[in-house]
Each structure stands twice: as structure tokens, then as C-alpha cells.
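Minutes, project huddle
Topic: does the predicted pose make sense with alpha-D-galactopyranose bound?
PN asked that the exact inputs be recorded in the minutes so nobody has to dig through chat later. Recorded below.
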Amino acid sequence: MTIATTHDAATALFTALTGAAPAGVWSAPGRVNLIGEHTDYNEGFVLPFAIPHRTVAAVGTRDDSRIRVASTFTDAPVEVAIDELDRLFPTPTGKTPAVPEWAAYPLGVAWALRQAGTTGSGLDIAIASDVPVGAGLSSSAAIEGATASALNDLWDAGLDRTALARIGRRAENEAVGAPTGIMDQMASMLGQPDEAIFLDCRSLEAVVVPVGIAEAGLAILVIDTRVKHAHSTGGYGERRAACERGAAIMGVPSLRDVSVDDLARAEELMDDVTFRRVRHVVTENQRVLDMVRVLREQGARAIGDLLVASHASMRDDFEISVPELDTAVETALAAGALGARMTGGGFGGAAIALIEQDAVQRVSDAVTAAFADAGFIEPVIFTVTPAAGAHRDA
Ligand code: GLA
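Predicted holo structure (C-alpha cells), as shared on screen:
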């Protein structure tokens, strides 16, 4: 879907639901992360950019105090009284939300805004999206960003983009029950065409960094393995716990406070698995800083080795890759990519590859063939460019 058809789909759904036109239409993008994986909840550094794929929310106010959410990817709308949100959320750790999971994202945003002291009239919310779900491209942050932007306007909350990103993360952590960091919501709120967002996840200070990929004659290919992941269960939370354990052993508040020079001491103090989790985060933070410097000083052609090193660290030390992601990365590199790595939380989802603009077809064909040879399901492959963050569309 293009943004125009996603926009039309959300508006048509709204009208089918209410018989009226929406008060407005808001949208927010998914993201890819260039580098800096599992560093956000360790108060470290990340370098994501927003992608052209967006979630659109067509929203109108109601005369009563109820919220109804509908989405093109499910049949039944979900309707609750606004007061009831405080009974439905937070979702206890390890439990599934008291509403269907997709509805916990927009309703969780309304709940988080109420927790932050803002509320307003009843709402009808119709959602459509062309961000692939479960692909590690932050479809959830896109729903949160579109909903938070709409409610910020319609409930006169007056929050800035960083505050709206925090609202989105609160919905994700406490309403959906996924223990994620803030990278995705910040990328979705702050994205700008042609820029990546260099974010310090401790201070939430964000600086835009020109990526210059197109100017260098290059493209970013996304290889969606279609292996679905969910961060509300299992591996993601375990990795987070290992990082907290490592920080406690080192006697620091978070792994942000551990440097590459401290790793020899860390290795003496902890078991092998905890050490390798720590080493990934510590070296990945350094790779983000290195990539920002390399992009500024040498340009996009010079970042390939950092991408490859990041993937190796996630595969061997953090152990969050899967065979499909490794095949995508290895095949893209063998077909001439300058660099490649899995992107997002891992355990499935997508890889990115930095390639020559004229190599899109060749690299895509090579990856598709390698997947077929390995007996994997066929990947979905497309290019992305850095795009705008959340905004009101109409
Ligand atoms: C998911 C989470 C983010 C981040 C990444 C890994 O996308 O939502 O907060 O932790 O995984 O870098």
C-alpha cells in the first residue's frame, strides 16, 4: 500500500464505522535501525531512521465517554468506556492484555495519556497500516505514534514529540506488556527525510545525522525473513535481565557506564553467558559512536564493516539471530553488499543490507534463491529511504 491508499483505507473504515467523516487523520512511520541494538534499555546509543511505511489513524470525537478502536487487520472493533481503561491496565507482567493485543496499543496510549494527566471526550479510531507486522520494523511504535499524535491534538495535551514517544513506550511496556526500550517510539516521532536519529537513550537527547546513502549511489535493502517474533514473550526479556545482572555485577546503574576498556575486568567477574551479553552491549554502543563519526567524516560507503561487526556480535555474543537472518546477511554480502546486519529486536524479523543502487535486483534474487535452497519461506525484500516522523495528514 502507498500512503495514499493507507490513508483512504483508514478513512473508509472510519466512515463505515460511524457514518461520518473523521475530525482528522494522523500517521506515524515504522523504522529500521542502522546500528545500536539492545542498547536503548541499557541507556546507551542508537541510530535508527524512520521508513516510508506508515500507520494511519482516522479519528473523530464522540458525544459520550467511550473509545472505540477498529483496524483493517481485524474484523471486530473494540469499545470500552474511558473510565474502564484504568481497570484494564496496566497489564500484569507475564500476562496477556485484557483486550485483544492489537487494541492494547491504541487503548494503551489513551490510558498512558490519562496517567500523565490528560483526558478528553470519547473517540472513534480507525487504523490502517502498511508497516509489515512482526517484521522488526516497529509496526507497534507506528500505531502508538499515530494514536498519540491524534490524541495529543484532540485532547489538547500539548505534549512535545519526546513526551509522546514516552507515552507510546508506556503503552507498549505496561498495556501490551512488552519490556522494550524507547528507540522505536523516538524514531517514529522524530524521523526526518534523509536523516538518521542519533539518540542518547539516557538523556533522550537526539541529533539528526545525514545518512547520505542515495548521494553515495547506495541503497538500503530490507530483507523481511517473515519469521515472526514477539517481544512480549521469552528471549527479549531474558536478554534484558542478563544486561541488568551484568550491570549489577559491575556495580553500575546500567551498561551505559561500562566501556570497552572495562571488559577484561567484566570477564573475570561474571559467567560466560552474562559476559557475552555485556560484551555485545558495550561494543555495540561503541559501534554506534564509531558509525556516527564515520558517516560524518567518510560517508555511507565506509560503514559496511561496522554493520557486519554488529551482526556478528548479535549472532555470537547476544545470540538473538536465527538461521534465516544469518542466511540473509551472508548471501547479501556474498552478492556484493558493502555491509549487512539483522535490525530490531531479533529472534526473527528483518535484516538490512547496504548495497549499490544498481544491485537491488541481483542481491534480492540471490537472497531469494538462498532461502529457497535452505527450505525457508520466501522473504519479502524492498528498499527504504529515511522518511518523515509522525504528523497530522489531514
Ligand atoms: C525492539 C525494541 C527496542 C529495542 C530493539 C533492539 O525493537 O522495541 O526498544 O530494544 O528491539 O534494539
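Observations noted during the meeting:
- The mean pLDDT is 97.
- The chain has two domains: 3-208, 211-384.
No decisions taken; revisit at the next huddle.
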